[in-house]
Structures are given as C-alpha cells and as structure tokens.
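@channel sequence for tomorrow's demo:
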Amino acid sequence: MSAAEGDRVLDDAELLEQARAWVAQDPDPETRDELNALIVAAEAGSAVAIRDLHARFDTRLAFGTAGLRGEIAAGPNRMNRVLVAQAAAGFARYLLDHAHGETPSVVIGYDGRKNSDVFARDTAELMAGAGVRAVLLPRMMPTPVLAFAVRHLDVSAGVMVTASHNPPNDNGYKVYLGGENHGSQIVAPADSDIAARILEAAKGSVSDLPRSEAYEVAPESLEAEYIAATASVAGTSAPRDAVSFTYTAMHGVGWRTAAAVFARAGFAEPTVVVDQIDPDAAFPTVAFPNPEEPGAMDLSFSTARAAGSDLIIANDPDADRLAVAIPDPESADGYRRLSGNEVGALLGWRAARLADESAGPDEAPFGSLACSIVSSPALAAVAHRYRLDFADTLTGFKWVSRAPGLLYGFEEALGYLVNPDTVRDKDGISAATAFLDLAASLAAEGKTIRTHLDEFAQTFGYFASDQISIRVTDLSEIDRVMAALRSTPPSRLGEVAVSQIDDLRDGFGHLPPSDVLRILLEDGSRVMVRPSGTEPKLKIYIDASSDEGSVAEREATAVARVRALADAMRALTA
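structure tokens (generated this afternoon):
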C-alpha cells in the first residue's frame, strides 16, 4: 500500500521514542515483545534493528479504497492490534459523522488468518464503545457472507478482516458501505475521509479508546439466508448431478458454506482436496495461497486425476475468488486452469443468454455487463451481440459493482459477480454455483466446457490475453517505469504500430483518475500498464483477438499477437 501523507524519515532518537510509545499502548504481548527486542537491539547500536524500526515507523499502512493490508508485525507500517484499533476508531467516527441523527450500524466478519478473530472482536468492541451498533458474525466465514450481510441486515457499513489470497503472514481490513452504496466497497472520497479520521485517532493512545462488549452476534440463520440465495443462482432445469468435480478451499474458510450451497443446489458431492479443505492460517501446502500462482493447484490436479473429475473448483482463502480447471490431455497435470478472462467470458455469455430468455419475444434484454478495464474485451463483444449495455470500470469490484443496471460483472483476477441483487462484491461461491450450473446444462446437451470455449470463439472471435507482473523491492522503480512510458511513449510495439495512448492519470472519459496507461494498436490489440494496488508490482495486461478463419486459426493469430506484444513490453520495461 502507498505511504500515508506526512510520512518522513525519523531521526534515531525520535524513532526510539515512537517505538516505546507504541509498546506502551499495544495490547498484544507477541508484538510488544517483538518490538521491545528491536528497541533493546537498537539501543545497543544494532544497525539492522535500527533499519527495521525505520521500516516500521517512518511510514504507516495507508487506508485507501482497498482498506488496509500488510504483514502482521509491530509498528504503524504493519498489521497489528494497535493499527486495527486506530482504523476502527477512525471508521466509527466517520459513521457517526454521517449518521444524520440516527445510530449507525456495522457488521463485522473475519476469515481464518492469524489474528483475524482478534482484529474483528477489537473492532466490535471499539465500535460499540464509540456508540455504533456493532454486529459480529458468529464465527469465521467467507468474505461474500459479510458482503451479503451488509445488504441483508441493512446496516450502515461492513468490515471484513481478511488478506484474501496474500502470503500467509499478511492480514487486512476491507470496508463496505450500505445505504446508497448498496453494500459495495468504499470509493473516493469516502476513503480519504475515513483515512483522515484514522490519522486523528492515531494521535492518541488506543489504550484510551472506549470499549464495550455490548455488541451483537449475528444468528447462524444469516449464513442460511446466504446459502439459500446463492443456491438459487443455479436456475436452469438441467440435471445438476451429472458433473463430477474436485473442490479445494486452499486452507481457507470456503468449504463449509460452499458445501451447503452445492448440496442445496443439487450438485453431486465433490471430491475434496483433503489437505487443503480446513482453515489453516499457516497455509502449509502452498507458499502463496492464490490459485493463480504456479504450484498452488498442484494438489487439486492430483486429486482430480485420481477421481477422474470433470472439473476442478477452487476458492481462494476467503472464498471471494474462483478458479476453474478442466481436463486437458495435453497437459502434464491432466488439467488446465482456465484464465480469469475465459471464466469471465463464459459466465458473461451465460448471463446474457439468461437475460435474453427472460425478455419478451419482441423486447431487447435489459441491463448491463461490466468488467474492469484490464479484463478481456470479450465481454463487450457478448454485450454487443445481445444488445445489452456494457460498462468498463477501473480495477476492483468497488467499481465493477457500481455499474448501472448491472446483471453480471467480472475482472480477470478470478473475480466474478453473478448475483448483484444479493451481493455487491466478487463472490467465489456464487460464481462456482453458476459455473457448475453451466457445466450441467452443457452436459445435458452432450457438450463440455472445452467445446463451449470453441463455441464462444466461433460466435464472438478468439480472445487471447497475457499478464506480466514485475515485482520490485523499491517502489520508486515502478514510478520510474511509468514516468518513462509517459515521457517517451512507444510508437510501435514489435511489428505493430501504436494508434493511441490513453493516460488515465487525470481521468479519461467516464473513468476517474487512475495511474493507468492504455496502449491501443492498429491491429486492434491492447496493452494496459498500471501499478498493483495491493502488492509491490508493476502489472501489464495484453489482449488481442481474431474472428477470421477456423477456431484453430483464430486462436493461432490471437495468441501470436499476444506473445509478440509480451516480448515487446518486456524489452520496453527492462
């Protein structure tokens, strides 16, 4: 995350003074002991300890539209109970200031990561102590259940303690708003308004903040309501038990809820990846609990091979993302994980067909399909063919979920919103339900997801995509690359001329300001360049398509264009 405004390099005396003040207010013995050890070492002259303290205290995790996310450790530039208390106090102040004379309310959820339950209870106590009606979910649950609860309980706001698919020692704090925001994640200017109140709370000691145990605990029936609403996503009449699948929760909290949804929807009982099915904050079988990462789905592949599964369904640790894999005899694993763009396009086609079927015989379907600007243009092609509106948004479901008349939205990072009337955030469980329903419908016609992908290419064209992630240790390197692209924009990428470059830094058309460059090429291909919002990475997204020739010829043309552009971008950003 970016640094907070006003960060500065402290001199060593001030550094130690702030570290001691932090220890004095820290209610967590683990982080107190950790910081005390650093202070002692720094006082003894350890340069390593002093550097470590500067890394923790010269800046702080900034609160933005993605909330907070970082490594669990002591200090303002880490995730810990002090920082969470400051965030809760600041957010409570924001809710009270916008309550218009009524008592504001917040529902709080948490996943199975280290300290998630502690951070959630701290938030509930501090919210209640500040005069906000606080409702705590009864146990660890998926992020989509919290997003559902904001709307279902009609509360002012929601807080989810999760770091989603980040490394094991990270945690985070996601914020939603009810009312006119309909349960979506926050956007500007709410983020800066909340951040200002957090910084104000940080001026004092969290030990002085009022706490109360007079918060509510949501009934178990809340999850049952989510399960019923999500199971209804499988709305077709096709037999649903004909498709066999393997499921993994990737050591997260998805299985209990997902299993109930799948059973209620009538799907066959899945084969589970036993070693990953229960929540485990250590994530022992994956170095990086993200289905997109190399190796993360290896256990799923081996389990599915043994079971002969038709599909693999994977949720990330908080179950807001979905990964799908299909049998592939050409792969050494026996399965191929579909890209987020492939799943997004197929679910978008399903949504468009359902909208078309629900319209009258002489009526055009109503509503819009939406995806982030870095996601595949395939969804726009679907919307056009079915006479639906299309919206491209900035990256993140805080934007996708706000598209007017939304029927369906996705982003390429394995995020899908298939039931916007129920949840206004990406939801890996409802998306899995929709995808399994699609697979069942195809099976009833003697088809598979693999053949359906070919049908998509024949109907709309073949859309190829690739992504380059350049991880850095120095964030200024990202700034350098973006500045270089702006000051010396390319006129060609490989053999293809650049036709237009859109700089979104000051906003562009209907899009708010964002640090994004969109490079359009004469053959219709596209390259997007932006810094990651949650990790120290520069991300490059490449898309190309072809609608000429057979499916195989379309694929070959589009894939070749993407590969050439990827080579050109690697050379340009080296």
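heads up for whoever presents: Confidence is low (pLDDT under 50) at residues 1-6.
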